[in-house]
Fold this protein.
Amino acid sequence: MMFPELIASDVVLTNAREVHGPVVAEHVIALMFALAKRIPDAVRFQQTHVWGQRAMWESFPRPRELAGATVGLVGLGSIGREVVQRVAALGMRVIAAREHPEKGTPPGVEQVFAASRLDELLSLSDYVVLCVPVTPSTQGVMNAARIAKMMPDACIINVGRGPLIDEAALIDALQDHKIGGAALDVFEKEPLPADSPLWGLDNLLITPHTAGLTDKLWERQYALYAENLRRYLTGQELLGAVDKRKGY
């Protein structure tokens, strides 16, 4: 949508961020549990009729608990705020990085870092959750140098946009077991090509951009559209207005 003529025009663009926030946050929690409890490995053992208890215990990283773990949120928008509520209820510690730390520290967040201190956040996080829009400053934000800042058993979860991660760097890190694992719902190219090396990584959980899909999605979308149409016809401020210069 962000073509130059639209950006330069007085056309108001809106998005559905408040529709997607709660359900994408649920997906983040599902991915965290799957990674922590080694659910993908259990499914693979089931498919081959193997009782994999010892193998799951002896491989890296071992099954672990979410309570007490640290979540590092990169972004505190509609998705990030919803994630905070859910992980805090699980007894997890939450730290976050945001572009404008002067906006304050939301309830449930222990500490907010400026974007310039992202490396520090990465070094402290058991689960790094990417939920920021793609802008010139965030594209490729998780590159090889940044991934190297993570703890050896930490995991990356991306529900933002594919270009936030340097996929080649992530592939190298996962192949060499430099981090504990990853779960991706979004990719640089979608659909993910059948020959992508990502498919073959046992320590990567792939979901096909389904974080926002639920049986109630369109019901909420239509409600938002109807409300914005009513507001537009009556000259009121629209919900979910996009800053076209910033790109979100």
In short: The mean pLDDT is 96. The beta strands are 70-74, 93-98, 111-114, 127-130, 155-158, 181-184, 204-206.
